[in-house]
Here is the input.
Amino acid sequence: MAKKSSPAATIFLISIFFILYAPIFYLVFYSFNSGGSMSGFEGFTLDWYRELLQDTRLLIIVLNTLVIALLSAFIATVIGMFGAIGIHSLKRSKHAILGLNNVLIVSPDVIIGASFLILFTIAGVRLGFYSVLLSHIAFSVPIVVLMVLPKLMEMNPSLIDAARDLGASRWDVLTKVIFPYITPGIFAGFFMALTYSLDDFAVTFFVTGNGFSTLSVEIYSLARQGISLNINALSALLFLFTIALVIVYYFITQRAGGKLGGFRR
Here is the structure.
C-alpha cells in the first residue's frame, strides 16, 4: 500500500519547483512585452519573436549549436556505449578506470575549458567548429558511460551464456542480446549528452574562436550589452525546445521499456 505524502513534504516540493521555474516563466512572460523592458508589462506583442527570426546571424548560430549538439551527442554515445561495455567486462582495475571517468564529470568546467584551450593551442588546432565539437564529445563521453553502465550491471549474465551456448557469435551477442537490453541507457546517455552540449557555456567559451559561436556564448554576449527582450524570446524558444526533448525522450524510453519487457519474458 502506497504511503501518502505529508502536507509539509508537498509544500516543500511545491516551493522547490516554484523557485526553479518562476524565473523561467517570468522571463518567458516578458518576451511578449511591447514595452521593451522588464520593468513593467505594457501590452502583448510578438515583435521580439519576429525580430529574432529575421536575425540571420543568430539563426546561423542556432544551426551551429544544433549541429554541434547532435554530432557530439551521437559520437559520444557510440564511444561511451562501447566504453561502458569495455569497463563492465574488465576483471581488474574496473573501479580505477571508472573513477578516472568520473573525474571529468566532477571537475570544474573552467578547468576543463582551460585545459582544452591549452591542448588545442599546443596541437595547433584552430579554434572554431572542430575545437568545440571535440570538447563537447570529450565531456559528454563520461556522462554516457554513467548512463549505460548501470543497465549492464543489472543484466543477468546467464543471458549472454545462453546465447553463446546456442551458437551465437560475439557480434550476435552484442547486437541481439546486449544492445537491446541497454537501449534505455543508450537513449538516456544520448539525450543527457545532447542537453549538456546545448547549454554548456564555460568549456565552449574557452574553445570558441573568431567567426564561430554557440547560443550559450551568444546569449552571454548579448546580455553584457544590456537588457533586450530578444534574449527573452530566444530563451523562451530554447525552453520549449528542451521540453520537447524531454517529451520525446519519455516516449522513446517508454517504447524501449515495453520492448525490453517483451524481451525479458
